[in-house]
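Example 3.2
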Amino acid sequence: MKEFEYLAPTTIKEVVDLLLKYKNKACILNGGTDVVIRLRERLISPEYIIDIKHIKELKGINLNIKEKYLFIGALSTMNEISANEYVKKYYPYYAEACHSVGSNQVRNRATSVGNIVNASPLADSATPLYALDATLIIEGQNGRREVPIREFITFVRKTVLQEGEIVIGIKIPLYENTKGVFSKNARRREVDLSNVCATIVKIGNEYKIAFGAVAPTPIRLTKTEEFLKNKEISDKTIEEAKELAIKEVSPIDDIRASKEYRLDIVKVIIDRSLRELNQGGE
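Structure, written as tokens:
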């Protein structure tokens, strides 16, 4: 591992200033579950590591009833999110997605914001956020801006973050009359990466369908959503939705699964999730 200088700012402004000063020579350290591995395997070799864990503004999970959203701070770990009373009440499938990540030790360090910023197509905590139309709150030299999560990840390991910007949290809208299902297919039941992951949320008579590991980024199946809108869920409707869904994804063959296997899993998830959502299940 190449030597680097460790920096521990205590404010967001300090982080922005450091990122602007050191540019591509610097790397953000949050939970570290991805960064440390990439450092060890020499996939990255920054000269400066900027540890953001001492910034109080990035901590906490806060419910804003008046403006109808839940804020997830950038330092919130997977275990904190999955155990949070508001997350479990309003988005139990998001709690389940966070709890599916790695081991208990990993979840004590890994963060959902880090999971998103890493921009992996199979980020488990991404699909609930895609389905819920969450936004990422970003801070930089020009102030604060909000970016819909569906626009944030542009390709594998690529995001819209500009020079000197940092994600400070996630803003999730609150919905009435909603329920959802998170699904994860992997080679092992525990501590493994997804072959396919997905979240399907039912809001009233509409469906929000998000899949991971079936394209270069997590994606929403908008054509399938539009097809299902206001429809009664029957065997025929489910079969048509499954065929439409596999036309919206573009999985690849890799070490974990073949393209054909992933297409089959997409259909299985669509089938099971729609049936569960229409039987009163969570």
